[in-house]
Amino acid sequence: MASHNAGKVAENAALLAEHGIQVVSAAELGLPVPEETETSFIGNARLKALAAAKASGMVALADDSGFSVASLGGDPGVRTADWAEQPDGSRDYVAAMNRVEALARLHPDRTAWFTCALALAWPDGHTEAFEGRAPGEWIWPPRGEKGFGYDPMFQPHGESRTFAEMGTEAKHAISHRAAAFRKLVEACLAR
User: Fold this and answer.
1) Domains (ranges, CATH) in the chain?
2) Buried b (16+ CB within 10 A) or exposed e, 152-171
3) pTM score, two decimals?
4) DSSP code per residue over the chain
5) 44 annotated binding-site participant
6) Does 107 carry a binding-site annotation?
7) Are 162 and 144 in contact (CB under 8 A)?
8) What is the pLDDT along the chain (191 residues), one digit of tens a residue?
9) Which residues does the entry assign to the active site, renumbered to this chain (predicted)?
10) Which residues are catalytic, by number?
11) How far apart, in whole angstroms, are the C-alpha atoms of residue 191 and residue 185?
12) Do the annotations mark residue 64 as ligand-binding?
C-alpha cells in the first residue's frame, strides 16, 4: 500500500483482507513519500502507486482521497491534506474543519462529498485507476470520534450520522473508498 497514512492503510487493508491480500505499507518498507504534484485524485494516486511499485519491485496500490465542498468550488478537494498542514509539518484536521466552516458558513448550499481514487501500479509502469464518491453534506459542529480527517463534519446522504459516528462496517458499505474498491475488485480481483 503506497501510503504513510495509518488511517488509510487500515481502511484499505480491511477492504483487501476479504480477498486474501495482505497489505504492507510504504512506511513499513521505508519508502519515501513522493510529492503530490498532480491536479486530480487519479493523477496523485497514479504518481504514488508508480513510485512505490518502482521502488519496491512489487505491485502497489495507492489511494488519493479528499473532502470537497460545493460552495467552496470543490475545495479543499485534491488539496485536502494541505488544508490541515501546520507550520511544523504536522496535520491538524480540527483546524482544517474550522477553516472549511469559516469559509462555507455564509453559503446556504451544504453539499459536500468525499472522493477516493485508487491506482494499482506494476513495476513495469502499467497502471489501472478507479474512482468512487460518497455524496452528502457538511455539518457543524463536527460529531463523532471514529474515522479520521474530515469524517466528523461529513454526513452522507440517507444517514443521520457522520462518518465519524459510524462503525467500520457501516462506513465501508457506503464510503467513497468502498465505491472505488468495488470497481477495483470487479476489474482486477473478481476473476
Assistant:
1) 6-189 (3.90.950.10)
2) bbbbbeebeebbbbbeeeeb
3) 0.90
4) -----HHHHHHHHHHHHTTTPPP--HHHHT--------SSHHHHHHHHHHHHHHHHSS-EEEEEEEEEEGGGTT-BGGGTTGGGB-TTS-B-HHHHHHHHHHHHTTSS--EEEEEEEEEEE-TTS-EEEEEEEEEEEE-SS---SSS-TTGGGEEETT-SS-GGGS-HHHHHHH-HHHHHHHHHIIIII--
5) no
6) no
7) yes
8) 998 888 778 878 888 888 888 899 999 999 998 999 999 999 999 999 999 999 999 999 999 999 999 999 999 999 999 999 999 999 999 999 999 999 999 999 999 999 999 999 999 999 999 999 999 999 999 999 998 899 999 999 999 999 999 998 899 899 999 999 999 999 988 75
9) 64 (proton acceptor)
10) 64
11) 9
12) yes
**How many angstroms separate the first and last alpha carbons of the chain?**
21
The full length of the chain comes to 191
The type of residue at 57 is: G
Distances from the Cα of 19 to the Cα of 14, 59, 122, angstroms: 10, 15, 19
Residue 69 CA to residue 113 CA, distance in Å, equals: 7
149 known ligand binder: yes
Rounded Cα gap, residues 26 and 52, in angstroms: 7
